[in-house]
Amino acid sequence: MKRIASILLTFAIIAACLSGCSDKNRPDTDNPVTLTMWHVYGSQTKSPLNDTIDRFNDTIGRENGITINVVSVTSSSAIDKALAASANGEPGAEDLPDLFTAYPRVAEIVGEDRLLCWNNYFSADELSPFRDEFISEGYFGDKLLMLPVAKSFEGLFLNKTLFDRFSAETGVSVNSLKTFDGYFKTANIYYDWSGGQNFTQINDFYNYAYIGMKAYGGEFISDGKLNLNDEAFEKIWNSLSRAAIYGGICLDDGYAASRWKTIEIISNTGSTADILYQPEMVFYPDNTTEDITSVSLPYPAFTENKPAAVHRGGGLFAVKNEDERKNYGAYVFAKWLTEKENNLYFVTSTGYLPVTDDAFTSLLADTSIAEKESYRSLYNMISSMINSYELYALPLYSNTSDIQSRFEQNVKLVLKAAHKQYIEQTANGKSKEAVLDRLAASSLEELKRLSVKDM
User: Fold this and answer.
1) CA 420/CA 196 separation, integer angstroms
2) Bridge partners of residue 200, in order along the sequence
3) Which long-range contacts (CB under 8 A, 24 or more apart) does 124-128 make?
4) Is the pLDDT reported for residue 140 higher than 50?
5) Is the distance from CB of 115 to CB of 124 less than 8 angstroms?
């Protein structure tokens, strides 16, 4: 009996030790942790993710001694720059946050070895509900460094109120916007009808080029470099550049939603999450206002028999910490955020899509889950795209972020200069078509010259 008692006592001591060790590695109300976070969902004053985080902090977070402290809400490009400054230890840079949302390209910027491997915490059963096309984007080799929390597609957004007036006088219909050919022709007709106003803004020329090359059988990225010498690129550049040089496309920096408000544009292509920022009222130069109705349309197709679009949206990253409580706390938060009810609450406030099969199917089967009519229209549009579009994730390669950023800048720089030349030359009586042909060709050569480092 004494021997049995001794054995039982030994096991009890070992169990207590193991339990104590385990407790030290997990936060609780006696050993709480606070995790700092940077993200891109909304603004400092109106952020659906901040509202969702408040729910976590007040419930599961409080019960487990975990607090998420959002210290920055900004754009993806700004987060890229801030992360680079922090990772490189630049003077005045903030410390890396414990959590941040970003695109996969930041793994190279921060360094993969600094990032938490989510599949060291999530079990295979916990990862199995995620949609394959969403979670696969977060793997770097066998390491899941980016966990999907919200995804989006690209679409076309239209100020229907003002478009209807334009349509009534010109005969141009919404059906003209189904293809890029019709979209660009409409942009130029609107430019003339409006007395020189841009019709639209393309938020991502890089994505336009990537999908366009796919549609025509080419590859925009070849061996980690831009492939601008392909005939397919010349084809998509010719139609884009002629519309931009003519004046139908806005080439300025900044957000499309801001230009909607002041009627600088009445449409744009971009992430379905843009709906979060779209105004319901516009302001005219004479200070009068008008309520508007906007609609969501599928991303224009390059060829009618092969529509395609980018699926996009960053994911959640965590920086590895020597304090294992923080790593485990990041897991608890990430698991909670991607559970069906919580994920649907968050994404339907932002125009994003949930990341698990169950939540995704539920939303598209019953779009009334979204409270606003404009959001229900958006999800109905996405549902139609799911059934007919080929969806692509953007590729990762060395210096992805820099190359993508420079391409956007170079496109705008080249086309702005060409538009200015077009105005000057046609004002002198030169043939509009001849000038367009010449400037479309010369702008392509100039783009190649500027992009030579990336080719």
Assistant:
1) 13
2) 249, 267
3) 126/335
4) yes
5) no
Tell me how far apart the alpha carbons of residues 183 and 301 are, in angstroms, rounded to a whole number. 10
Output the pLDDT for position 454: 60
Instruction: Decide if 51 contacts 349 (C-beta within 8 A).
Output: yes
Place of tokens 């801001």: 258
Tell me how many degrees the CA angle 71-74-79 measures, rounded to the nearest 5. Answer: 90
Helix (H, G, I), strand (E, B) or coil at 309: strand
At 44 the pLDDT is 45
Give me the sign of the Cα torsion angle 116, 117, 122, 126: positive
CB contact at 8 A, 131 and 357: yes
Question: Residue 350's closest CA among 37, 41, 40?
Answer: 41
Q: Could you give the CA distance from residue 282 to residue 164 in angstroms, rounded to a whole number?
A: 15
Residues of the chain with pLDDT > 70: what percent? Answer: 94
Q: Please give the single-letter amino acid code of residue 451.
A: S
Q: How far apart are the first and last CA of the chain?
A: 80
Q: Supply 78's token pair.
A: 């700004």
Whole-number Å distance between alpha carbons of 392 and 221 = 13
What are the tens digits of pLDDT across the range 202-243? Answer: 999 999 999 999 999 999 999 999 999 999 999 999 999 999
Phi, then psi, of 321 in degrees rounded to 5: -125, 145
CA angle 198, 200, 201 (to 5 degrees): 110
Give the DSSP H/E element, type plus range, for residue 311.
strand 308-312
Rounded CA-CA distance 208/182 in Å is 15
The DSSP annotation for 361-387 comes to: HHHHH-GGGSSSHHHHHHHHHHHHHHH
